[in-house]
């Protein structure tokens, strides 16, 4: 069953909302998981740095962080695997809620075509480590984001091959991911060494309202920030 949820973001200076259509019984990518909520609050906290920047969301699913980044002034590409997930992205993209003060404009796929054409957001289907036209067309991103993309260990190399390729076009870019740590023994040292990346753990409690922290939203969720170690390197 498909339901719509409204996610609100606010601090003393600004507030906005995004509506997301979800279906928890259809596919794990059609539900907004806690890691995506945490990553969206990271995006909201860094909104002043994102305005006018190019942002790519990998494994977007319902695309809450990416859609929020677009609403906050970034030029955004939402991506997920080719096929049905891209269609879900397009559906959610048409369910944006645009807020200006107390004014609320509900955008649907039928009614929001003008807004969609004028906004700096697009949707693309890519498979990690598959260097076809879609992936090769993605260029010069300032920030790459992804929620729960560190889920299946067998896909890590494909993910980081894609990330390193994209970051090689802009050595100052960052890859920020939020994920639920399901194994206390899991580390990413071997991946940072293999792909010549730096990695630091961010304090996610700085990005969330106190109530969400108290309610346990951060339980086992980590935010990692990856950067390139050198300006020039080769893909292994």
In short:
This protein has about 240 residues and is α/β, with parallel strands linked by helices. The chain has nine helices and eleven strands.
Individual helix count: 9
Q: Kindly state the percentage of residues in helix.
A: 25-40%
Q: Characterize the biggest β-sheet.
A: 7 strands, mixed
Element order: H for helix, E for strand: EEHHEHEHEEHEHEHEHEHE
Nearest-integer average pLDDT: 80
Strand order of the largest sheet: 7-4-3-8-9-11-10
Low-confidence stretches: 95-118
Descriptive notes:
The chain has 236 residues and is of the alpha/beta class. 29% of the residues lie in helices and 28% in strands. The chain contains nine helices and eleven strands. The protein has helices spanning 34-45, 47-50, 64-71, 84-93, 113-118, 133-136, 156-167, 189-195, 210-214; strands at residues 3-10, 15-22, 54-57, 75-80, 97-100, 103-106, 121-125, 143-147, 174-180, 197-202, 221-228. A seven-stranded mixed β-sheet has the order 7-4-3-8-9-11-10, sandwiched between helices. A two-stranded antiparallel sheet has the order 1-2. A hairpin with a 4-residue loop joins strand 1 (3-10) and strand 2 (15-22). It is globular and about 40 Å long.
